[in-house]
From TrEMBL:
The keyword Transport does not apply. Keywords: Dioxygenase, DNA damage, DNA repair, Iron, Magnesium, Metal-binding, Oxidoreductase. InterPro entries: AlkB-like, AlkB-like_sf, ALKBH3, Oxoglu/Fe-dep_dioxygenase_dom. This is Alpha-ketoglutarate-dependent dioxygenase AlkB. Its cofactor is Fe(2+). It comes from the Bacteria. Gene3D superfamilies: Alpha-ketoglutarate-dependent dioxygenase AlkB-like (2.60.120.590).
Length: 208
């Protein structure tokens, strides 16, 4: 899907992807290679990475990636049966939030970091459709390091899967009804794969 997009004139600009029942925008070079390398090194070093145990189909398993949850106080979040209390914003994460809020026109009060150590790390099929995100959440997904495949599939309609290569420094905005109609995954990949960090910036509603 993304392979032949002719975006190379304005790598920082978000460009709409023509996918039905979704609002997807992609900038393949939101950060330059140098900026991305600096951010990746800082995040690898500064983040309190953890491997969580989650319940999948009734069984407790180790998540196949490392995570860290950061956010404003009060932005607490439950995810696949894990309750996550957010760590505070670091200067690195605050700077990224500012950049991404300015580019996307949405506000975020939390960010989930995922570290895919190699091709064996992955995230299974899901939609980010928790009630606390509201019916039409804007989720901004920033990728650093190893390019990995991000695959979307429609929940109901017969539609070919949509594949996007999430390159180093790229930004994918998922908004509108995307989470209502589509699921996504980052599958395991064979062969030599280096580390990748993905950050999804989200706006969590206050608990009533
Ligand atoms: O790593 C990615 O690109 C996606 C991560 C994801 O879907 C999530 O954290 O909800
Ligand atoms: Fe997700």
């Amino acid at each position: 899907m993304s392979a032949n997009l002719d975006l190379f004139d304005s790598p920082r600009e978000l460009q709409a992807l023509a996918v039905p029942d979704a609002d997807l925008r992609f900038a393949h070079g939101f950060y330059t290679r140098d900026e991305a390398a600096t951010l990746m090194a800082a995040l690898l070093e500064e983040t309190p990475w953890r491997q969580e145990r989650i319940r999948i189909a009734g069984e407790m398993r180790w998540q196949p990636r490392l995570t860290s949850w950061h956010g404003d106080l009060g932005a607490d979040y439950a995810y696949s049966g894990i309750r996550l209390d957010p760590h505070p914003w670091t200067p690195t994460l605050s700077r990224m939030r500012r950049d991404i809020e300015a580019a996307t026109g949405h506000a975020y009060n939390s960010v989930l970091l995922n570290l895919y150590r190699d091709g064996n790390d992955s995230v299974g099929w899901h939609a980010d459709d928790e009630a606390l995100l509201g019916p039409t959440p804007a989720i901004a997904s920033l990728s650093l390091g190893q390019t990995r495949l991000f695959r979307l599939r429609h929940k109901r309609r017969l539609h070919a899967p949509v594949d996007i290569q999430l390159t180093d420094g790229s930004l994918l905005l998922m908004a509108g009804s995307t989470q209502r109609h589509w699921e996504h995954t980052v599958p395991k990949e064979r062969g030599e794969r280096g580390p990748r960090i993905n950050l999804t910036f989200r706006l969590i509603a206050a608990r009533p």
